[in-house]
Amino acid sequence: MSDVAMVCGAGGTLGAALVEAFLARGDRVVAVERRGDGEATPGVLREGADLTAPEEVEALWERLAAAGETPRWVVNAAGGFRAGSVADSEPDEVRLTTELNLGTAWWSCRAAARRLEPGGAIVNVAARAALTGGSGSAAYAVAKAGVVRLTQVLAAELAERGVRANVILPALIDTPANRAVLPAESLERAVPAERVAAVAVFLCSETAAAVSGAIVPVYGRA
């Protein structure tokens, strides 16, 4: 029987690439979006949940358990970039950025940590900015740094149960949104979403069974 992979943030460019990559490998996929009303695809169960709300995340996992669809692999790709400096930050914007990037990963990881069986794995998607910071992305960089530390803590907490946790750090991903606003010279360094997804899917495999607590850069032409 094929494994079940949960992709959180399946509505974005990277999320869609993750869904396709797991499907191509033969997994069944739970694609989690805010509304969950995407186009029906064979092998894909589309679920709606606000991943910033812990009660909705818990309800999602309970629905899956009732349906006999318990994930083995969980990839947390939800998030959103917000520009801004510390000096110019507004409270509501900081809270929103933190909820979108760290909160979504936290609540998904909490639910997964309570339920994954030995041999399962979690992959969180952070960003290069989590390590490098950078002017103009203050709240985003700090939130993604939190995702990195969350992953390392989780890897330690789940080690005895045989559940792994790793984090990937893309730099610039080639997406329609980035193509609309970035100059051509920047896009030359962008990594196709499919290649980022391939790294996450590898970490959700028996081949990567010895890898946990890793911070994996996916920078392309850095």
Concise overview:
By secondary structure, this protein is an alpha/beta fold. It is 44% helix and 18% strand.
List low-confidence stretches.
none
* Relative helix content: 40-55%
SSE series: EHEEHEHEHHEEHHEHE
Radius of gyration: 17 Å
Characterise the protein shown here:
The structure is a single chain. By secondary structure, this protein is of the alpha/beta class. It has a single domain, classed as Rossmann fold. 44% of the residues lie in helices and 18% in strands. It contains 8 helices and 9 strands. Helix 1 crosses helix 8 (193-203), helix 2 (54-66) packs parallel to helix 3 and helix 3 (91-115) packs parallel to helix 5 (138-158).
Label this structure with key terms.
Rossmann fold, globular, 8 helices, alpha/beta, 18% strand, 222 residues, two-stranded parallel ribbon, 44% helix, seven-stranded parallel β-sheet
